Amino acid sequence: MIPHPMPSATRGLTLGLDVLLTTLVVVAVVQAPSGRTWQAAVVAVVLLAVYLWGRAAVRVHERSVDTPRGGWWPDAAWVAGLLVAWWVLLWLSPAALWIAFPFMLLQMHVLGPHRGVVAVAVTTAVAVAEGLLVQAGDGDAWTGFVLGPVLGACVAVGVVLGIEAFVRESQTRQRTVDELTQARRHLAQAEREMAVTDERARLARDIHDTLAQSLSAIELLLRAAGDALGSDEEKARALVGQARGAARDSLAEARRVVQDLTPTDLDRTALLGALRAVADRIAGTSDTDAGRRRPLTVSVHATGRSRPLPVPLETALLRVAQSALANVVEHADAGRAQVTLTYEPDAVTLDVVDDGVGFDPAAIADDRSEGRGFGIPAIRSRVRELGGTLALEATPGGGTALAVTVPTRESTREPTREPNRGPTRDVEDAR
C-alpha cells in the first residue's frame, strides 16, 4: 500500500492542542495565588517537560487512527504523568482547571475511543470535585461547576471521534484510489502484452501470406531453372529472370509489411484486379513445379454490385486469397481453382474452390504440431478479427471449398480509395 501523510485536519488539531495547552498553563501560573506563583511555575515547567517528552516518544502526529492505542508504555504512562502534574498545579492554582479540556482531547487521541473515554471520565470527576469542593462558595450554584466539565468532556469526545471518523473515511477512499490505480497499471500492462501478441500474430500471417509464398515461388523457379541448365539455356535464363522478378516483389512486400501499408497489388489496382494479379502469379508458379501432375488454371469471378471497400478489408481478403491459393498449389495438386468475390448489401464473400485431392480438416492440428498447416488457422484468425465467418468443406479426393464472409459496415467504415473501376458488371477471367 502506498503510504500517505496524515491529513491536515489531524495535524491542525495536534498543533492547536500544543498552543492551547501551553497558553492555559501560562494562565494558570499567572493567576496563581500570591505566595504560590514560583511553586506553580516549577510545576508548570515539569508539566510542559512531560508533555514535550510524550510528544517526542508517542509521536501522536504520526500515528494512524487504526493503530492500536492505550498501551501502558508509553501511552498510558504519558497520560498518567500529565494527570499527576496537573493535579499538583490545580492544587496550587485554581485557574489550572481550564487545562482539563485540552487534557481530555489528548487522552482521547492517545488512548483511543475506549480507554480514552475512561481517562476523560476521571479527568471530569477531578474537575467537578475541584469546582464543588474548592472553588464553589456558600451561595454559588453548583450547576456551573458540574455542567462545565461535563459539557467539555462531551465536546472533547465528540470532536476527537468525529475527526477520527473523517480520517478513517479519507484513508479508506485513498486506499480505494490506490487499488484502482494499481489495477489500472495492471490493465495497461495486460493491454500492452495483448497488443504485442496480436501484432506478432498479424506479422506471422502477413509473412506467411506474402514472403513465405514468394520465397516458395522463387525456390520452384530456381529449381526448374537448375533442371533446365545444360539442356535448355534459354528456358533457364527465363526462369531465373522470373525468379528475380519474384524476389523484387518479395522485397517490396517486406517493406510494406514493415511499414504496415497496403499490399503492392492493391497499390496499383482495385481488389478485383489484385485478385487477378495473384491468380496470374499462382498459375505461373504452378507451371514450373515439376512435382505437379497437371497445370493449374485459376479463374476469377465477381458477382453483385462492386463497390469500394475499406482498405483493411480489401487487404485481408487479398491475403486470404493468397493463402488459400498457395495451399492449392502446395497441397491440392488441382487442375482448376476458382475464386469468386460476391458483393452483398452489407457483406462481401470470397470463395476459393479447387478440384484437387482434398484433405481431412481434422488433421490441421496435427500438421501445426509438426510445423506445417499455418495457412488455415491464419485465415481463421484474420477473419475472426474482422467479425466474419469462415466455412471450409473438404474431403479426401473430393476437392476443397473455402468461403469467407465479412461484414462491410459501410455506415461506419473508414474512407476508401476510389480507383478507376469502370462500369459495374459480372466478369469471369480465365487465368
Task: Give structural notes.
By secondary structure, the chain is an alpha+beta fold. It is built from eleven helices and six strands. A six-stranded mixed β-sheet has the order 4-5-3-2-1-6, with helices on one face. Helix 1 (8-30) packs antiparallel against helix 2 and helix 3 (72-92) packs parallel to helix 4 (100-135). It is rod-shaped. It starts with 7 loop residues before the first helix and ends with a strand. Mean pLDDT is 77; it is low at 1-7 and 411-431.
β-strand amount: 5-15%
Low-pLDDT residue intervals, each spanning 5 or more residues:
1-7, 411-431
Strand order of the largest sheet: 4-5-3-2-1-6
Taken in chain order, the helices and strands follow as HHHHHHHHEHEEHHEEE
Morphology: rod-shaped
Helical content (DSSP H or I, runs of 4+): 55-70%
Distance from first to last alpha carbon? 68 Å
Strand-pairing-aware structural class:
alpha+beta
Number of helices: 11
Give Rg in angstroms. Answer: 45 Å
Q: Biggest sheet, in brief?
A: 6 strands, mixed
Find the count of extended strands (DSSP E, 2+ residues).
Answer: 6
- Overall mean pLDDT stands at 77
Compact summary:
The protein has 431 residues and is α+β, with helices and mostly antiparallel strands. The chain is built from 11 helices and 6 strands.
